[in-house]
């Protein structure tokens, strides 16, 4: 049995930077609400499940945050202000294009003793310039707020705080829940304080179900918002049924279903009324188009229709 969400908050302390993040969220939402802008909350990357209070080991999942980081850029392009709530050290909008050695390889070092300079290689300027321009524009206009989580408990605290701040936006708030959130965890009260010792033998680790936050999120925290959740599966036969189950249970607007193996080329949009595939053509793939461009465009159309039909 999953523990109840209220019980979870009572028994798990907020992360240490929680109050700072709450203030940032509040200021960001108030500022953009006062100008009538839409805000997209994009969650991204995977949560961890610690095995010890002084955490040396934890259960993790595969998500690198590609979908969330790319989608955040497309929401900015579509004129949204974006709260990018992501796993620490997962991919981020803009910098994701130059991960690892790629960035270093774009630079040239001109070593002239005390007058050392660094320049961008001429053939890299075309690649760097548009990304840098978009990054600077987002920063200078204060259109993006970055907040981070690591554990599933951090994520829970941050998500509720973000929802509390987004509530006053009503239907102008869009929640795009692409993070891969653990379904299982070890309650804080059952965690050992210190590193598990191998000298006592192989540990038996017993995981419990996490409470499903979509329930209070949709019905209590942001009842007027446009909520989009993601559903990942590895068995194609159950994907649409699971997405539809989720819609029936939580009564939100849209589930984007995706398969682990094909998620970069194809997703399925499941609404209470219908389901349809959104996929990249061969030509779009060759031209380097990203599926998040299509996903976000479709979500924005649905959000606009929702806003147009919203009865205050
Ligand atoms: O981070 P990524 O781009 O590698 O993967 C994205 C994703 C598969 C985690 C996302 O599209 C998704 O399905 N998130 C929800 C996962 C779930 O809880 O079912």
TrEMBL record:
Domain DNA/pantothenate metabolism flavoprotein C-terminal: 40-93, 176-279
Annotated coiled-coil segments of the chain: none
SUPFAM superfamilies: CoaB-like
InterPro entries, alphabetized: CoaB-like_sf (IPR035929), DNA/pantothenate-metab_flavo_C (IPR007085)
GO molecular function, one term: catalytic activity
One biological process term in Gene Ontology: coenzyme A biosynthetic process
Domain of life: Eukaryota
Family the UniProt entry places it in: Belongs to the PPC synthetase family.
Protein name as catalogued: DNA / pantothenate metabolism flavoprotein
């Amino acid at each position: 049995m999953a523990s109840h969400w209220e019980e979870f908050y009572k028994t798990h302390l907020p992360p240490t930077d929680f109050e700072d993040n709450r203030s940032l969220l509040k200021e960001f939402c108030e500022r953009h609400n006062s100008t009538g802008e839409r805000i997209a909350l994009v969650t991204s990357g995977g949560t961890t499940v610690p095995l010890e209070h002084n955490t040396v080991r934890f259960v993790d999942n595969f998500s690198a945050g590609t979908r969330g980081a790319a989608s955040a850029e497309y929401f900015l392009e579509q004129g949204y202000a974006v709260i990018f709530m992501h796993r620490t050290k997962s991919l981020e909008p803009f910098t994701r294009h130059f991960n690892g050695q790629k960035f270093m390889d774009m630079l040239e070092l001109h070593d002239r003793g005390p007058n050392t300079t660094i320049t961008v290689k001429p053939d890299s300027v075309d690649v760097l310039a548009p990304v840098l321009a978009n990054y600077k524009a987002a920063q200078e206009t204060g259109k993006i707020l970055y907040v981070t989580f690591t554990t599933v408990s951090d994520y829970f605290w941050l998500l509720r705080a973000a929802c509390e701040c987004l509530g006053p936006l009503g239907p102008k708030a869009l929640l795009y829940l692409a993070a891969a959130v653990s379904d299982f965890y070890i309650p804080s009260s059952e965690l050992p304080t210190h590193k598990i010792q191998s000298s006592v033998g192989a540990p038996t680790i017993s995981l419990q179900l996490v409470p499903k936050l979509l329930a209070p999120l949709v019905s209590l925290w942001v009842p007027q918002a446009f909520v989009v959740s993601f559903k990942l599966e590895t068995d194609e036969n159950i994907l649409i049924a699971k997405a539809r189950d989720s819609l029936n249970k939580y009564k939100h607007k849209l589930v984007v279903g995706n398969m682990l193996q094909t998620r970069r080329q194809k997703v399925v949009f499941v609404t209470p009324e219908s389901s349809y595939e959104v996929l990249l053509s061969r030509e779009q793939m060759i031209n380097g188009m990203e599926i998040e461009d299509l996903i976000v465009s479709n979500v924005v159309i649905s959000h606009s229709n929702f806003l147009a039909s919203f009865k205050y």
